[in-house]
Amino acid sequence: MWVEFKLLTLNMAIDIQNKKIELIQWLSTLEDAAIIDKIMALRDDERNDWWNKISEEEQESIETGIRDADQGKLNSHTQVRKNYEKWL
């Protein structure tokens, strides 16, 4: 089973690499500026970090959680379920 999984993973990686090469070859021959602009916009959207799309309050909450975790201020899953059981 493990060997089958590794082979499937390897095949998927090769397939992705082949698709990248195919795209590069296609892009190198593309003359349509509108399509190139759409591809560039897609790339820019993918680069846009989700962090910049959330509110300052959400950012601060995440940063507080990371600091708490770094300092070992964590609750077990059992404790969290107990604290919030009335909403679950």
Automatic annotation (TrEMBL):
Organism superkingdom: Bacteria
Protein name: Uncharacterized protein
